[in-house]
Design a protein that fits this description.
Layout (H helix, E strand, L loop, with lengths): L1 H35 L5 E2 L2 E3 L5 E3 L2 E2 L4 E4 L2 E4 H6 L2 H9 L12 H8 L7 H7 L3 E3 L6 H10 L4 H7 L5 E3 L12 H14 L2 H17 L5
Helix pairs in contact: 1-4, 1-5, 7-8
Family: Belongs to the bacterial sugar transferase family.
Protein name: Bacterial sugar transferase domain-containing protein
Keywords: Membrane, Transmembrane, Transmembrane helix
Length: about 220
């Protein structure tokens, strides 16, 4: 219980500081997104949070908007009308190596995880923690558990905690780590319940972002 309270205090203090420090960068990114592609600056996909509760994650939009059936939709809908890409997307742990949907500026934002900066607001709101398991899409969780049946017990465990803006797998290879290994790492992280370990991951996160290792 003490760990949970300390972790939440740490989230509020550090995310507030990070928001203030990153504000000039976020303003610049917002301007670049608006100037280089049509559509909203922010993208708010639905993710599965603590205890299976859904929340809207905030991210900078890094993909094109598409017109399907007369309606302008986000790039995720684009995959539904392209079965070959959808198959490749699911096979690649819900990532595309050469994703045609990503904008020019989006490639840079995703490579250095700058598109994730708005998640600091999610941390302040309490939807997320600075450090925790990955925040998954509902369909991604269902699909990956079918592909990796042994992962189900780990998924059950990680859904008891707030998802993190960063975590053990993000600072250890990012997209190079498949779902089955990722959920084990997240479950092991939750078992540790250590503020010092949280701080260590927070310290490592900027270096992981700069190195761009495992970025897709």
């Amino acid at each position: 219980m003490l760990y949970e309270f300390s972790k939440r205090d740490l989230d509020i203090v550090l995310s507030s500081i990070a928001l203030v420090l990153s504000l000039p960068v976020m303003i610049l990114v917002a301007i670049l997104i608006k100037l280089t592609s049509s559509g909203p600056i922010l993208y708010n996909p639905e993710r599965v949070g603590k205890n299976g509760k859904f929340f809207k994650m905030l991210k900078f939009r890094s993909m094109h908007m598409y017109r399907i059936g007369g309606e302008k939709v986000h790039a995720e809908k684009y995959l539904e009308s392209h079965p070959r890409l959808m198959k490749e997307y699911q096979k690649g742990s819900f990532k595309l190596k050469d994703d045609p949907r990503i904008t020019f500026i989006g490639k840079f934002l995703r490579k250095f995880s700058i598109d994730e900066l708005p998640q600091l607001v999610n941390v302040l709101k309490g939807d997320m923690s600075l450090v925790g398991p990955r925040a998954y899409q509902a369909d991604e969780l269902l699909h990956q558990q079918k592909v990796y049946p042994k992962s189900r017990k780990y998924v059950k465990m990680i859904l008891t905690a707030r998802p993190g803006a960063s975590g053990p797998w993000q600072v250890s290879g990012r997209s190079h780590i498949n779902f089955d290994r990722r959920v084990v790492m997240d479950a092991n992280y939750l078992n540790r319940k250590s503020i010092l370990y949280d701080l260590w991951i927070i310290i490592k996160t900027p270096f992981a972002m700069i190195s761009a290792k495992g970025a897709v």
